Amino acid sequence: MDRILEIGSFAAGFCGRLFAQAGCEVVRVEPAVAEPGWVSAAASDLFLHPGKRRLQTSDAELITKLANRADVVVVEAATADALTELGFDAWDTNVKVAITPFGRTGPKRNWRATSSVLLAMGGYTYIMGDPDRAPLTLPGHYVDFQSGQLAYTAANACRLANEKNVIDVGMLEVVMSLSQFTTILWHCTGQIRQRHGSDYWSTVPTNLFACTDGWVYINIVPTFWDPFTVFLDRPNLVIDERFSTNNLRMENRDPLHEIIGEAIAVMTKAQVRARATAHRIPVGVVQTFDDVLADSHLAERQFWQRVNGSNVSVRSPSPAFRIDNAARPELTLAEPEAGDG
Prior knowledge:
By secondary structure, this protein is α/β, with parallel strands linked by helices. It has helices at about 10-20, 40-50, 60-70, 80-85, 115-120, 140-160, 170-175, 180-190, 225-230, 245-250, 255-265, 270-280, 290-295, 295-300, and strands at about 5, 25-30, 50-55, 70-75, 95-100, 165-170, 205-210, 215-220, 285, 305-310, 315, 335-340. It folds into two domains: about 5-180 and about 320-340, 3-Layer(aba) Sandwich (Rossmann fold), CATH 3.40.50; about 205-285, 2-Layer Sandwich (formyl-coa transferase, domain 3), CATH 3.30.1540. The strands form three sheets. A seven-stranded parallel β-sheet has the order 6-5-4-1-2-3-12, with helices on both faces. A three-stranded antiparallel β-sheet has the order 7-8-9, covered by helices on one side.
């Protein structure tokens, strides 16, 4: 069982969550002042920190002792210098992971940034929202959790290779690495992606449509065009020259969207699901949160688990599905302890 020391906020917390779910012994050093998040501190704790031992301490000697005993240490800091001030370089840990907004080197290493700033710098904001309105940003902790996941993957690669290493995760680089389709469009076709609302634009139809009791998202690549016309009860669209190729569907997107909107508007979500299954096309019904909680597929795969805290019990995503069907650990949220050295 690997011993993991986790220091930091949401990115380090998500990385530590993945280690805890994998059965590792995780010790989390709680920050003196918790960073505000998108949900309450109690909700964040229940999602990120069950299965961990939690310490409240600023004792540098104790933190160094814990780091030197750990197999992996994951540290998230606001800047490169803040990371250095923690004593990161002096710790004798086999695998050390640093998570900062811009990495430990380079001219921006001591710049501070929020997730929204990183998304804007990484090009995400430019492509989100309606073209005639202000751009949008992603809610929640997308950048933090993606950075924590990359840190977890890199640390495990070193552990499996029995390699001593220092891993430098720059959160801006994480954002950039996740925009591969935008990059491919630019390098291969010279296209610069822009904001088009819910319309994916380069593959038509890919858009959001209203049905009688909700919303449906449709993504039809050329392979699915013929069965999609049958799904709509509009098989004559197959021989309509305006829509015979994806390029022509792009040119005639407005009349095509109008045809699809009229067909979907008279269906219920249940009818959409049934017809999509019958015709084997990728049509997704937009679910409410209650729908997601009650989803039979997630229940069959034991996606949810009960997490218990001192005075609360909630349903939370369980550790990952195991292909060998091994038992997954049951995680409990522990109360923070005072680190006394």
